[in-house]
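Morning run. Coffee first, then this:
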Amino acid sequence: MSLPMVRWTAHTLVAALLAAAAPLCTVAQNKPRARDLGVPFEGTPGPLNAITDVAGVEVGHSTIIRGDGKLEMGKGPVRTGVTAVLPRGKNSTDLVFGGWFSLNGNGEMTGTTWLEEGGFLEGPVMITNTSSVGVVRDAVIGWQLKRSGLSQPWSLPVVAETWDGYLNDIGGFHVKPEHAHLAIETAAAGPVIEGNVGGGTGMVCHEFKGGIGTASRKLSERQGGYTIGVLVQCNYGARRLLRIAGAPVGQEISEGAFRSALGGEEDVGSIIIVVATDAPLLPHQLKRLARRAAMGLARNGGIASNGSGDIFIAFSTANPSAVRPEGVVDLKMLPNDRISPVLEATVMATEEAIINALVAAETMSGVDGNKVLGLPHGRLREVLRKFNRLQP
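And here it is:
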């Protein structure tokens, strides 16, 4: 999407981008997902198999694709964007309990020291590229101030990143405040667009095209009937390590494994994982939930290498109005002895969200003609069939 940024006011730009995004959303939602290709997964998904199965959660994207050819710093090519996850939707100022975990810290997620200290996630979770964390953080503060929705006269937004410099002019600082605002203002419940969108536009996963993916699990009534949803921005991993449903897909499909072919470090990159639930969990329990995302990542071949930023955040939409200026607040908490099904569901939903991102992402070329292949659906089915993992 190419726009003459200097000539547009923020209001007009957002309106134009909203109009342009509508047909893209319709097309993207018709893409096959991992289950459509016969990939087997454990557990029962929610109706949308998305993080938005958790009531109140909204997701929005702002995608910037512009230019081709040789890198010209500040001019492109541009393959980047912003993704926003809003725990109670953009019209709510009610905070949620949250917790976070860093599996490997070669990355950034702002606002986490206050999240750790205070226990509340104050506003959206934003995901973008490494060089755009600052501008997105400032844009969120501006958006919150405009809405007069701050619970105190300052804000420490949560903004996370992964590096998209193989395809994107990351040093050109192409993400602007209006792109962050667009991701927030277009956030909605319902199906979530996956693949080459938002913060995931220029990302690479296991040397295939990566990006945004999501999945969910619905627990039985006996287990509490809770919903657990996961959204990932995946940009990590060596091809040879990729496993899907236990099959060594990365070893069977070697075409386009550019990092190993170039002789560089294979397992580089990062992943951001956002976990949402309606189970009544307190901050210390949500930290436990965030840790379990690592196990879903490992199922697909993630090893949290030295160069990887694997940072996870979890929140609960239970306990509304927990933030009050006066009085004592009565809270609900799921006993620890009943939390294991929620932890297991997090592992399963994380595993599937990553594969959904790989299935949705399409081949993309970027700076200097660098090209990353999308995971070939037909070849994936062949490999799963070979290892007796293809779901009929």
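The radius of gyration is 20 Å. Good start to the day.
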